């Protein structure tokens, strides 16, 4: 049996646990009055900065027309605004409005608070195990990690910079 086959059951369990955790925490978003698809797209521009429609569609793994419909609704609800690029008027950036930023950050705060309440029920040993598991998951996903002082280190993502350039060319 190969290492891949040996790890498939674990991968299945991690996948299932992640989905169930996210579903459980997503219940905290019901009070926002914003649909899950809009919250997801909004999170990309709140936490990742301004994006083009193409970049948003790629990040959310949907078509550009689908993302355009989402953005129109978010713009109508005052969650995002469109702005022309200062150097290339053909490029339109989607930015979160203060209202969109506030709604998304409040939702994140509610989800994190719920998870913190759940984690408070764990033993110190379980917290230590979960801390190590989280570091491994962050490494696998290439996400930022924070040290004990709260300093965040982000891996260099050359692809992100390259995709930004490709997205600009596609919007011409």
Describe what this molecule looks like in 3D.
This protein has 172 residues and is mainly alpha-helical. It has a single domain (3-123), classed as Winged helix-like DNA-binding domain superfamily/Winged helix DNA-binding domain (Arc Repressor Mutant, subunit A), CATH 1.10.10.10. The protein contains 7 helices and 4 strands; from the N terminus they run H-H-H-H-E-E-H-H-E-E-H. The chain has a two-stranded antiparallel ribbon with strand order 1-2. The longest helix has 24 residues, at 3-26.
Q: Tell me the number of helical segments per DSSP (H or I, 4 or more residues long).
A: 7
- The SSE order reads HHHHEEHHEEH
Task: Specify the overall morphology.
Answer: globular
Q: In percent, how helical is the residue content? A: 55-70%
Strand content: 5-15%
CATH class: Mainly Alpha
Give the termini separation: 51 Å
The biggest sheet, with number of strands, parallel, antiparallel or mixed sense and barrel status, is: 2 strands, antiparallel
E-strand count = 4
CATH topology: Arc Repressor Mutant, subunit A
Which class best fits the helix and strand makeup? mainly alpha
What is the residue-averaged pLDDT?
Answer: 83
The CATH homologous superfamily is named: Winged helix-like DNA-binding domain superfamily/Winged helix DNA-binding domain
Q: Reading side by side through the largest sheet, how are the strands ordered?
A: 1-2
CATH architecture: Orthogonal Bundle
Radius of gyration: 19 Å
Q: Would you identify the regions where 5 or more consecutive residues have pLDDT less than 50?
A: 146-172
Number of domains: 1
